[in-house]
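Q: Joint fold for the lines below.
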Amino acid sequence: MEFTVTFEGEAAAVLQRLGEGLGDREALHATMAFAVEALWRDHLDSEGYTSRPNKLGGKSTGYWKGASQSIASEASAEGATISMSQRGLALHYFGGVVKPVSAKALSIPVHPSAHGVYARQYPGPLAFIPAGRAFGPVRKGGRQDDHFVGFLVRGEERVVTRGKNKGQTRTLPVKGGETIYILRTQTTHEPDPNIVPGESAMITAAAEAGATYLESLIQSNNP
Amino acid sequence: MANAATLDFLRGKTSLPTDLRTAELDRLPLEIRERSFFMAAVDDAEVLDRFHGEVEAVAAGDRSMSEAKVRLHDFLKARGYQPLPGQEGTIKDLRSLRRMTVALETNVEAARSYGQWARQQSALAAFPAVQYKRGRQARVPRDWPARWNAAREATAAAGATLATSEDDMYCLANHPLLTDPIFNRFGSPWTPYDFGSGMMLTPVSRAKAIALGLIPQPGETSEEADFLRELMQPQSRSLNESLEARPAVASQELRDALGERLLGLAKWADDVLIFTDPNGTRATTESDLVDTWSTPLPTVFHDIAPDGLLQRQAVLDFADDPETFASKPDRNQWADLARAVGRIAEPAKRHAIVRTIADGNATGWLADLTSTPLWRGALQVETPALRAVSVLRAIKALF
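A: Joint structure:
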């Protein structure tokens, strides 16, 4: 996810003043872009993203810490680009529908132990209960949820004692075992544009940093 | 798109397969740790490269941590990876979520944080300071303020705030407390500063640094002001430079310096620095192993075993009293003993011997061993390295 910040107004005025006295603007752009990085990190903090506890009550995976640390900038004499390179951020920002690529269904963790873990890597046997068999179809807003496939619950290996599969092992639900994942053919996510600070705040931060940079140049030339 | 400095940081690292454990890796010179990709006790280059690749994919935003972990899981399964007996599901088991999480998080954060550090060096005029703060909630947080204050006292109080909580740890970006071993386990100025840490660094503006009293007033002249101004100068620590300058390792001065610092850990063979792997699994001859175990490791290793040679020590402890050794709950020494025998075993038998010994159940062969002439002869030897290798020879002869 990348943003190109165009400096106007106050920021453009700073650039104009500097442009008259500076040759290569890369260092200036690097400082102004770094200011936007810093602002963005503060924004994620002040808006409660980085301090957000795990919603299932499990150990935090540190997703937002990673997102904050993925904020970076590249500067040149012409301008700067600020980016955030964390998988899934575009989905947070724009929202959208997620469908499985190769699997039949998406496994959605509903138990703290499953947070941040794919079902096939879950440390323990899981038993599948199809929708409508044990718990009945899930309804959302009173309507049939066509995307609900079933549950993965805590399971245990048992030897089949009858029938053509006698002697083989099967994973069956543990009596009273918790639901670890629910399985869906798609999930829908609302957009959250608040993960990016407002444009005016970014421009102000860049302008202030540019002005500070200019002052430091003046001071270094007039010790 | 990941930041160029972040990717350069990862791509500039050389995979370093090693059997060194975490405590030993911590003691490698910083210049080697910063330029190598390694994981404790992972001596399989292909496995290491796969982890390296997943770290890069996560840092570039091409994969999530969960995706990377499941890909590693599938890779290790397809490869038939098995941990040593007794290590299943522990942090030593590469298949465990805990191990994968630590490896991925530590390396991804280091790469990204290095990029931030490098960019801040170019922006010190406007952002001369940092705040060390929590970026992820922890169930049992470490006492970072106490570590901060101890490192501040050990280095310099000027340019750093006195911490009263996790919310008020501020210092100049190049303050020495950040790399002090009291505070920072790894020694690089970029985070993480310990395994699994939820803390991070964020830039602090010049205006806030002035308000916090971290930087001197314009025109202020004092020793402290000079010190603080020095900390506000950009530091150069370009890993690209070192990558390009790697041939300079061939320069005699640096070769000698590295040789002195590494002591028994490595030796030069022409232009190649070979890690002798004194505590690892590198296959060798009995006579070469005597040489390797006759040279002490650097003194920083000496707190983990006499001369830092913990594999040699495991063999000597076994020789001193095999029955007491057999009853020890610490399985690490069994693993050390097993690896040591494996190093001098025939390649075809190596795997089976290591697994049998690492299993820690010596009832099937201990009585046979102690009745052999080779064993009795080994116990007559006094020189530690020779004694240890003689004991290995006696064990090897049983299998």
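Q: Anything notable?
A: Helices of chain A lie at 9-21, 26-46, 63-69, 89-94, 199-221. The radius of gyration of chain A is 26 Å.
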